[in-house]
Amino acid sequence: MSDILHTEVAIVGGGLAGLTLSLALASHGVDTVIVDREDPAKALVAGFDGRVSAIALASQRMLAAIGLWRHVSEAQPMWDIRVSDGASPLFVHYDHAVLGEDPFGWLVENRVMRQAQQAALADHPGLRLLAPLGVASVERGQPGSGAPAQLTLGDGRKVSARLVVGADGRGSAIRQAAGIKTMEWAYRQTGIVCTVWHERPHHGVAQERFLPAGPFAILPMTDEAARDGAAGRHRSSLVWTEPPERAAAILALDEGGFVAEMRQRFGDHFGALGLVGPRWSYPLSFLHAERYVDHRLALVGDAAHGIHPIAGQGLNLGLRDVAALTEAVVRARRLGLDPGQADVLEGYEDWRRVDTVVLSAVTDVLTRLFSNDIAPLRLARDLGLGLVQQIAPAKTFFMRHAMGDVGKLPKLLRGERV
Ligand SMILES: Cc1cc2nc3c(=O)[nH]c(=O)nc-3n(C[C@H](O)[C@H](O)[C@H](O)COP(=O)(O)OP(=O)(O)OC[C@H]3O[C@@H](n4cnc5c(N)ncnc54)[C@H](O)[C@@H]3O)c2cc1C
Asked: With a threshold of 0.90, does the pTM exceed it?
């Protein structure tokens, strides 16, 4: 019996971007194998990832179109967004109703999204997830030879594929093995993440407050389940940025001390509040790959670009990669083309580059502009906030970006199948 698995697309990395890509391809009949070094069961336990992701409206449309959204058990619509600068009275309030009935997006716990992805795998019996399993090496052959790429897995098995996708995150071994260089820097900021219960409801409003140490985001979550006839508590997820040393000191506090620090920044407009479950921390950095493609190779998600969470757009960029690459591969197949051939992959890169470069640059500038207490910069950004609040076209522009509804969208992001 041959120990080589033959497939059209082999994806290395089954994180939120890689697994979504596998489902998008499988739902269009593309033979796909996905490999991840993590045990899928571990990725579902409560301590694995405490983050909540803002899934923009366009990204959510894609998840619905590929049959993934129906497996998402809990999602909080984001009706409004409020951006403010420290103690300044100036703020911007984005109201979804200005653009229509749809919310800006949905807040989904990463754990809930991973559960949904794993449940959706069962809808595609032909889609093979090999995990926990690493990749020992990748041979992509010579351009022009027509030979497929070959992956050697940690258990010695081989996978032969016409296209290899690196969805293996910021430290991507696939990207490094291909010799693709990156631009990278650390922000000297740590993102503290935790879930908070609070007395008063959040009304689906996401808040971004720019404090001198960095952004402090309050993201609305679904209420806790009702218990013993009593309504469940209101919940929000915090992404609280601090310099690494201060973050370490805050994280080392006992629960009472931690909540007291949190309350100072949170304010008391939500009434009484407290912590739900553990606290997590993430070092924050920037990464951009010089190319997203190479011979028989495409990069998606954080393997290609990692940004600061200031605007809650990192995963959305990755999901837009998924939509563009799925469309490129599915169209190539319909024309009888090799999905790993150069012009197909260049088309994918061209489609994605402007969006990722612009958003990466904008989030980097915003992070630097808003993470300080330098008086002239404070004045400039307060003026900026005041102007955006007053000028309707500027507000509409930012609102459309928050929804992911800008530029020439791949079909999946419009909610259509390819
Ligand atoms: C605090 C914080 C808050 C955020 N909030 C938001 C938000 O609100 N909205 C948003 O859009 N984005 C947000 N982001 C960004 C978002 O979380 C990331 O962009 C996203 O998780 C990246 O997903 P990924 O699948 O590309 O990479 P990863 O999640 O890094 O997944 C990579 C996968 O590859 C696997 N892997 C790695 N190497 C190998 C190998 N050699 N062999 C096999 N498998 C391998 C890993 O096990 C993993 O499963 C936030 C980020 C942070 C830090």
From this structure: yes
The domain that holds 58 is classified in CATH as: 3.50.50.60
Cβ of 16 less than 6 Å from ligand 1: yes
Q: What confidence score (pLDDT) does residue 2 get?
A: 57
pLDDT of residue 390: 75
Tell me, using a 6 A CB cutoff, whether residue 54 lines ligand 1: yes
In the block, tokens 């979550």 appear at 221
Per-residue pLDDT reduced to its tens digit, 305-357:
999 999 899 999 999 999 999 999 999 999 999 999 999 999 999 999 999 99
Taking the C-alpha atoms of residue 244 and residue 283, their distance in angstroms, rounded to an integer, is: 8
Total tally of structural domains belonging to the chain: 1
Q: Decide if 318 is inside a domain.
A: yes
Rounded to the nearest angstrom, the distance between the alpha carbon of 306 and the centre of ligand 1 is 9
Atom of ligand 1 nearest to the CA of 219: 8
Residue 1: the pLDDT is 46
224 within some domain: no
What CA–CA distances, in Å, run from 272 to 201, 218, 231, 240? 11, 15, 16, 19
Q: Give me the domain span that covers residue 9.
A: 4-75+104-184+286-370
Query: Residue 203: inside a domain, yes or no?
Result: no
Choose which residue among 35, 36, 107, 238 to substitute to test ligand 1 binding: the one with the highest number of ligand atoms within 8 A of its C-beta: 36
Q: Which atom of ligand 1 is nearest the CA belonging to 173?
A: 41
Total number of residues shown for the chain = 418
Distance CA 252, CA 199 (A): 26
